[in-house]
Structure formats: C-alpha cells, structure tokens
Specification:
Layout: E1 6-16, H1 22-27, E2 29-38, H2 42-47, H3 56-68, H4 75-87, E3 94-100, E4 114-120, H5 125-129
Antiparallel strand pairs: 1-2, 2-3, 3-4
Helix pairs in contact: 3-4
C-alpha cells in the first residue's frame, strides 16, 4: 500500500563533532537536519490524539541526541543513523533524511553541503508473503 501522508520537520539545528579532520572533531560545528516521514495519518486525524502519530517534538529530541552524540567521519553515516531512529517507530513506512553541513571544510565560497538518504521499512517475512 502506498502511503502519501507525511510529517515534515525541517531546519533542526544541532551542534555536533562530525568530520574526517581532527579540527572538525575538536571544534565541532552546527548541522541542520530535515526529515520527511511517510506514514498514514488517518488514524491520528480521526482520533485527534497525539498517541496515534509520531510526536515530532520527541522525534526532534531523539535526532538531536544522535547529532550531538558519538562523532562519525561522514554525514552519510550520520544520515543513516537518523533514518534508523525515525524507522524505529513501526508506523513510519519510509523516511527521507537530509543532513546539511554548511560549515564544511571547503576552501571555496559555498552555501551548503548536504547528503540525503531515502530509507523504507523492509516488510517482515509475514508481510512479504501476503
């Protein structure tokens, strides 16, 4: 079943210490995260109850913990970890995560460097047989 409903969180800015170079790990910098969750929202719309949807405030806190947490070399790895956090909620069918690194160590003028990953929940063996 295709799911076209979405919850979108953009511009979550968190200080982290990710990067290949030692000075990136030592000094740190701000990273900006955009999330797009694909999931059915009809149950939450009908019940008008936050328990029937992804609480985006709580999700933002979990994502911030990942960004502020254990350093990684690549923002690709960071994006993958964030996607896993979003997909931990079984109601989320798919997620798009963009990690922006606007202060990347590039010796030229630029506005932003970003990586985007698209991840979907893998159907269970039982679901796949249906």
């Amino acid at each position: 079943m295709d799911v076209f409903d979405e919850i979108v969180l953009t511009g979550l800015t968190v200080f982290g210490r990710h990067g290949v170079y030692a000075h990136e790990r030592e000094d740190g910098q701000e990273f900006t995260i955009d999330l797009r969750l694909r999931m059915p929202l009809n149950v939450a719309a009908a019940s008008d109850d936050v328990d029937d949807t992804v609480h985006y405030g709580e999700l933002a806190e979990k994502v911030a913990e990942v960004v502020a947490g254990e350093p990684v070399n690549l923002i690709e790895t960071l994006a993958e970890r964030i996607a896993a956090v979003a997909l931990a909620d079984p109601r989320v069918h798919a997620v798009t995560v963009t990690v922006h690194k606007p202060h990347a160590p590039i010796a030229l003028t630029f506005s932003d460097v970003a990586v985007t990953v698209h991840r979907a929940r893998q159907p269970s063996a039982e679901e796949a047989q249906r």
